[in-house]
Design brief:
The protein is an alpha/beta fold. About 50% of the residues lie in helices and about 10% in strands. The strands form 2 sheets. It has an 8-stranded parallel β-barrel with strand order 4-5-6-7-8-9-10-11, surrounded by 6 helices. Helix 13 links the parallel strand 9 and strand 10. The chain is globular, with a radius of gyration of 22 Å. The two termini are about 35 Å apart.
Length: about 450
């Protein structure tokens, strides 16, 4: 840890010069190798807010110097809506913990296959229980790109910026303002891709699909207009919407039409609309957990997913449909997503499982985590849950309280776990047909 600002400046002096709010790199390779690990550790854990903030600024300035630019995926998705590329599904990866180390392996896997079309994301709920505010999450990703020698556009996304239906029902203005505050914070941290999820406000008890989707499309339109007022000059932030809450009834093309027709009227012709639409086709966040703690096989309705993607592109000019809750699906399922034209797929719990279920994960730490979950969250346990189900469903909540323990896993264990994750990222990139997309991204995404 750097104890003072002077300690920080002295540490980076051999490789970089700081002055007037700018960074001059003297030796890029040495800086990348010698300094990035220390900078990001201090950017996350240093108790001195001034040192922490300067480390974050150094990472961001260094990333820009090296051509690593947080960017919007909007131009790429507009190209998909025009049919200028097909059958490529962009993975959006929620990294809940050990973010810097995991992101390094994402970049390694991407560079091996020349993958440019991939997204890092974190959801509103994850920001809370993983104790990663947007500014921290973004610099972890950028530092990982620096460390691995990646350069080019980096896509960072606010996932499931979701409205709480109960809070919205009682205090709609307060809940809306809470989401707007989060959007402000995320954009200030260079999140240039935002998914608004007001699908929680859909009321299927109403007599028509248009009425069922009305609150959803009106709120999504309001948030779209708000985001457009905050986006940096020359940037069109990619905004996503959602018509079906994950884990509930499957979406239909009629649902999509009811939402989009209403949304387009409300958002207006002068405001750039959403670039993609999240749907429900049979999955559940985290997978369906069985009493023994295993994950049940879930059947995705790929026919419906294909029809929704086609309608999204052909009728509304979007990139296509987005699939949530897919990381625990069997490997042979992933080949189908590009075949049916899925624009984007969201992946989270499967990566978490690789970490916690690794035979190299320290058993004493896992025991402490499980004991913490029983004590801190035991009251939330459903009466029907077995011990295995409760632990599986709640281990995500340990990423925040045990952030430093996870960051400091023994080196051999860390290397093995990260190696397994890297292999997983590589497999997914291949199955989602996004190899050799560096030039495609470069053609459309202009940082």
């Amino acid at each position: 840890m750097f104890n003072t600002l002077a300690d920080l400046q002295n540490a980076v002096m051999p490789w970089a010069e700081l002055g007037d709010g700018k960074v001059t790199l003297r030796d890029v390779k040495a800086f990348r190798r010698q300094q990035t690990d220390d900078l990001i550790t201090n950017a996350v854990f240093n108790p001195d807010a001034r040192v922490k903030e300067l480390c974050r600024q150094l990472i961001k300035e260094t990333a820009l110097k090296l051509g690593i630019v947080s960017s919007s995926i909007q131009p790429l998705y507009e190209a998909a809506g025009r049919g200028e590329y097909q059958r490529k599904t962009v993975p959006a990866m929620n990294i809940r913990g050990i973010t810097y180390h995991v992101a390094r392996r994402v970049f390694r896997a991407a560079m091996k296959q020349r993958v440019g079309a991939f997204v890092f994301e974190i959801a509103r709920s994850e920001i809370g229980y993983t104790e990663q505010r947007p500014a921290e999450y973004a610099v972890c990703v950028l530092a990982a790109a620096i460390r691995e020698g990646f350069f080019g556009p980096v896509f960072i996304q606010g996932d499931h910026f979701q409205f709480n239906a109960k809070k919205y029902s009682s205090e709609p203005e307060a809940e809306t303002n809470s989401l707007k505050d989060l959007v402000r914070e995320a954009i200030a941290a260079d999140f240039l891709n935002i998914d608004i999820d007001a699908s929680t406000l859909v009321d299927i008890s109403l007599p028509t699909l248009e009425k069922q989707q009305e609150k959803n499309y009106r709120v999504t339109a309001e948030m779209t207009r708000f985001i457009r007022t905050l986006q940096p000059k020359g940037v069109t932030i990619s905004v996503g919407g959602e018509i079906g809450e994950v884990g509930k009834a499957n979406s239909t093309v009629e649902d999509l039409a009811a939402f989009m027709d209403g949304y387009k009227k409300v958002v207006g012709g002068s405001v750039k609309g959403i670039s993609k639409i999240s749907v429900q086709t049979g999955t559940k966040h985290g997978g369906l957990v069985m009493p023994d703690g295993s994950v049940a096989k879930v059947k995705v309705d790929f026919e419906t997913l294909g029809k929704l993607s086609q309608a999204a592109r052909e009728r509304y000019g979007m990139a296509g449909a987005v699939q949530h809750g897919a990381s625990t699906l069997p490997d042979d399922a992933f080949d189908h997503f590009p075949r049916v034209g899925t624009a984007e797929i969201h992946l989270a719990t499967g990566f978490q499982n690789i970490i916690y279920q690794s035979p190299r994960f320290p058993k004493d730490l896992l025991t402490r985590i499980d004991e913490y979950l029983r004590e801190a969250h035991g009251k939330e346990r459903k009466p029907s849950d077995t011990e295995e189900q409760f632990i599986y469903e709640n281990r995500k909540r340990a990423f925040g309280p045990f952030k430093k323990d996870l960051w400091e896993l023994p080196e051999d264990a860390m290397n093995d776990i990260m190696g397994t994750l890297e292999d997983r990222f590589g497999l997914l990139f291949s199955k989602l047909n996004i190899q050799d997309t560096v030039d495609l991204v470069k053609k459309y995404a202009k940082p």
